[in-house]
Here is the input.
Amino acid sequence: MTTDETTDDIVEVPPVREARSTTGGARAVPSRLLRSQHIWAVAAIVGLLCINVVKDPGYLSITYSSNTGAFVGNLVDIARAAAPLIMIATGMCLVIATGGIDLSVGSMMAVAGAVAMEYLSSANAPSSIGAAAAAIGLAVGLCAVLGAVNGILISVVGLQPFITTLVMMLAGRGLAKVITGGQNTTAVNERYRWIANGYVLGLPVVFLASAAIAVAVAFVIRRSALGMMIESIGINAEASRLAGLNRRALLITVYVVSAFLAGIAGIFSTGTVMTVDVSQTGYQFELDAILAVVIGGTSLAGGRFSLAGAAIGALLIATLDKTVVFLGVPASATPAFKAAVIIVLYVAQSRRVRGWAAGLRRSRRKSVRQVVAT
Amino acid sequence: MRTTETLESTGPVEPTPPPGGSAAEPTGGHPPSINRYLARHRDATSTGAALLIFVAMVIYGQITYGAILQPSTISNLLINNAHLVILAVGLTFVILTGGIDLSVGAVIAFSSVAGMMLAQAGWNPYLVVLIMVLIGSAIGLVSGCLVEFFDMQPFIATLSMMFLARGLASTLSTVPERLDPDSPIKELAHQWKLIDGDKVNDLVVTPGVVIAAIVVTGGLLAVHRTRFGRTVYAVGGSEPSASLMGLPVRRTKILVYVISGTLAAIGGVVYTARLGSAQNITGIGWELDAIAAVVIGGTLLTGGSGSIVGSVIGAFVLGLMNVLITRDGGIRPEMTTIITGGILFVFVLLQRAIKGRRG
Here is the structure.
């Protein structure tokens, strides 16, 4: 990613490059670190954690509970809460990289939850692995099909991603309600519940699973030409077509992956309570996911993307959610804090502010040089 | 190119088709004149399609359920959708420039909760309404500045303003803030009987509806009769071209967000006056309704093409759909979002078909 950023700077922000070229080798590392986009998001996470530590010095402590064989602590809670968001943000990042957007992921979560809960409550198998696997398979499968519909409408029919996925968002939420008959279905299955509430090596299964899936996706995307193809579609779809890329297949794949990961996120978030709330499960999650992706330095215009950034963004949003609740602010006011974080991050990264900062540095250096010359 | 073509379609000289876009060329079996007509009046065609479907819905409703084309139903349609019409007009400006405003629903929540609390505190009601509207303008101004000065994408800028306004509304109050029944603000929902029918079958109009009509008229004048309106289309058609032509792109783009925020707040005033209360969860998802209305009306989300009239029709299509669903009674409530999505989908496909015809 750093190489991409450097080229980007060279093309777009001459002042910064100038500042860089005059910087000596020893100072290059911190300045490059400062201009990396992730550093701001990481700094924001650290800042939020610091606020919590000020409020309660024991906030960061993690204890090992030998009863359940698990680590207990606020950081573990944050990791658990971030899991569904990491899933969605990963898919969203790929969609956004193609220049699209997927507003339907929140509804996909509800669909996945509705299918799984309906299946489990009718299967009536409290601890069978088979039933849990079938429920997950059905739920994720249906989501993938809906994602394929999104992809086909966008790539073959040529509809705009915003409207297509908006339709799917409305229809998906409706579909979830139709599946459960408008009820909030509850089911019992220990295996399914374990995914959301269980622990492996003392860490929540959801977090490990989402991290593993995110790393796997990143590995496949970055180790093959897929990532570059996705970027190239996002930068110039027509040029990619002329270069021989199969735009349709790639777009469909990307939307299927996004819906698939949203389905997994739906399973994570319904598993905690073993209930699907058809109007609240995944509600407005698409907005959080888009924020996570944008915080991670991926432009909504498409092109260059960063899966690691999206995951960091997801962690930041989860941390923010927990912090706001921890500080005793009503949960309904959380959005205002999200807005503040986004605006600060964005303004700090904007070319205008970076230009000012570079200008400041340059003028300072110039004055030093003048002093030396005289 | 497309924009100028549309704008100057009244001129006597036929504009030569742009290179690459063989728009007016006859394709297939259609006579060239129809294709050329469609190409040059695409805005009108999309709006016409929306109008056609609206009329079809009215006829269908009248035949199936009856009692659609009667004064009381029409009055209710007008009164209940006045705020949506106002929102859609505001959003049309933003979408015509190629932007989007997700903050309108939250603007309504924040401005009306703040307004109600001020009114309860005994402030002058006229001042309260003014403050409510100014809150909307201020939020729009911030969105516009974030977009223009800090390179934020409109989606993210207005999303953050949506979060901010919603969060601020929630910090103010999380319970319904009621308006004093004697407050002059309630006068905005006063019902004037224009035609006194038998029983409750009257044609009723409220000041809210009048405000909506004024907003629509003002919007039409601004878009079609002012330099600002032409700049809006030009910016949406191609921002670099507009910039090279020396048009005030930056000012225009900030102004459309201010207009959208202001109109959202006015819509909030109308809605609050009708309901008599405001809450921090008022208007959740209304930005999507308004976007749907604009899209149904034939405005392209990429900007540069569309019309205010279309958005108004779009708002009424959504309103009429709710009426029909309520009338039917047999449609399960969980189906409503699917139907909304379906109608939106049909309209987008229709637009796509028309656009596809152009080549």
In short: Residues 1-29 of chain B have pLDDT under 50 and may be disordered. The interface with chain A takes residues 100, 146, 149-153, 155-156, 159-164, 166-168, 170-171, 174, 280, 288, 291-292, 295, 301-302, 332-342, 344-345, 348-349, 352, 356 of chain B (CB under 8 Å). Residues 325 and 331 of chain B are 6 Å apart (CA to CA).
